[in-house]
Amino acid sequence: MNIQLTNRIKQNARSFSKGQRLIAKYIEEHYDKVAFMTASKLGATVGVSESTVVRFATEIGYSGYPALQQAMQEMIRNRMTSVQRLEMTSTNIPLDRLLDSSMDQDIDIIRRTKESISHEEFYRAADALVKVKKVYIIGAGSSLAIATFLSYYFSLVFDSVQLISATSEAQILQQMVHIGEGDALVGISFPRYSKKAVKALKYASDRGATVVAITDSTLSPLTKYAEHVLLAKSDMVSFVDSLVGPMALINALIVTVAIKKKDEVANTLLNLETIWDEYGVYEKVEDKTDEERNV
């Protein structure tokens, strides 16, 4: 179990009530289940009231039960297999609550990302990216989706952008053979962290490139080789990695860099609009008249 959580329980054990001792024992033996239980469900499971569970969380130094629950979730994320995640969700969340539970969790992730991100570091990273000649981007596993999204929009902002295919380590480094000073690598990875992404960041750092890591914690292995670290909360929705926090951060980064390069970006977009119109890339949707709308 999480060392910090274990220490908090041990340090406060003597002052625990009988009910709190039952909670502590159950957490120590079933922390993987407790991480996704509501306070009321945990109380019902061990035979105490919901208020006793909440008091237990504050007794050991957390702001409330959600903070205790979050500490356990973050602790187990890097240890659980996909099968364990699926089984855990099936056990702890009723089928008719999955939609609301998933969306509520995503809303909470974005809120926590906004509250915890360093504005100073965000703008420093944006300033650093504005100055580079070429941007390399790598994201392995589920992070590939948001890496691809970032690559698409950065290609409208920078003259040269390369999305690294995270195949074998050798092939990754082959794609980065020309990286050096004046270039940047944006590496994206969340638990379970990609070893390939970590090695790519190390290679880019050794070559003198600007390295930006988008990850979830200062303890992430990506931070060791990054000049700029942008932290976004992520979480598990069953076996699915919820990346709405990183996605929101990336959206903000794209817009910020684009505004800092406004004249260049505006010219690129103007040329693209001309091409799209000339070749009929997009289907035009005509505005309806009031009469047509009422038909």
From TrEMBL:
CDD domains cross-referenced by the UniProt entry: SIS_RpiR (cd05013)
Keyword Chloroplast among UniProt keywords: no
| TM region positions | 135-154, 239-259
- Using the record's annotation, list all stretches that form the SIS domain: 125-264
**Is Transmembrane one of the keywords?**
yes
One GO MF annotation is: DNA-binding transcription factor activity
Kindly give the InterPro entries that the UniProt entry links to this protein: Homeodomain-like_sf, HTH_RpiR, RpiR-like, RpiR-like_SIS, SIS_dom, SIS_dom_sf, WH-like_DNA-bd_sf
Q: Kindly state which keywords UniProt assigns to this record, in alphabetical order.
A: DNA-binding, Membrane, Transcription, Transcription regulation, Transmembrane, Transmembrane helix
A Gene Ontology BP annotation from the UniProt entry? carbohydrate derivative metabolic process
Q: Where is the HTH rpiR-type domain?
A: 3-79
What this protein is called in its record is MurR/RpiR family transcriptional regulator
Species per Swiss-Prot/TrEMBL record: Hominenteromicrobium mulieris
